[in-house]
Amino acid sequence: MRAALVAEYRKLLTTRLWWLLLIVMVGYLVFIAAVVSTTFVFVPDGQEPPLTGEAAARSVYSVVNGVGYVFPLIIGSLAMTTEFRHKTITQSLLVEPDRTRFLVAKIVSVLPVGLVAGLVGVLATVAGGAPMLQIKGDGAMLGRGDVLVGLLFSVVAIALWAVIGVAVGSVLSNQVAAIVVILAFTQFVEPLARVVLSQVDALAGVASYLPGGAADSLIGASFLGATGDVDLLPRWAAILVLLAYVVVLAVIGRLTTLRRDVG
Predict the structure, then answer these.
(1) C-beta neighbour count of 6 within 10 angstroms
(2) How far apart are CA 71 and CA 79, in angstroms?
(3) pLDDT (0 to 100) of residue 227
């Protein structure tokens, strides 16, 4: 297993695309966080801001998960789908013939990259959102314990998204198809589903079991509204839900894509 992990980690380090995605992620999150924080501190005369104080800060900082999770998902999926696109899967399986061990090594090896992406994403979000909150709002709230804990778990959430991305890539080995599905799901399907479910009292709690809802629960805040307005799971349950997605997708990938003959 150690040899397989080292081999997979080296593949990631020699690939330039993941850090190019990180650069795009930084610019995107800085911009979005700045825009969101601006909407909280600049409101028309006679109107109340949608959120204030710590609630506003936590909502702004949750942008890293609310809109930024597409990047680690793609990074993780590329770690798997690149093997099929460039026909290196055969050589990889010659080095590690046990396909289950190969998949586990893929999943584990992307975790450090995911943690780096999480740290970079959180710093970018704070850099974009904190100045406006500090200058025109009630403060950046970076000294509040709940805010700092939320930022810490944001790093963990982004790392888990990268791991989920590998599992997605094991199911959808076609790189273009995997990226299209990820973009469609993160930018349209899940946000719409969460909004629709939240409008139905009997189904509002279901939204927290969707991947994005579970990640918001892990962070303890949601980009979709104030913490009290969005159903969130306990953090331990959120981690279990996200890990369940990894396991289910990985098992499907192992029983389908990695069961076939490759060449």
Answers:
(1) 12
(2) 13
(3) 45
87: region left, alpha or beta (phi > 0 left; psi from -120 to 50 alpha): left
Question: Which one-letter amino acid corresponds to residue 18?
Answer: W
Give the C-alpha separation, 107 to 86, whole Å: 19
| Mean pLDDT of the residues in the chain | 88
List all residues 6 or more positions away from 237 whose beta carbon is below 8 Å from its beta carbon.
217
CA distance 57 to 42: 14
Of 122, 162, 135, whose CA–CA distance to 8 is shortest?
162
Positions in the chain whose pLDDT score sits under 50: 226-228
For residue 228, what pLDDT is reported?
A: 45
Amino acid at 10: R
Q: What per-residue confidence (pLDDT) applies to 231?
A: 77
* pTM greater than the 0.90 cutoff: yes
- For residue 117, the model assigns a pLDDT of 95
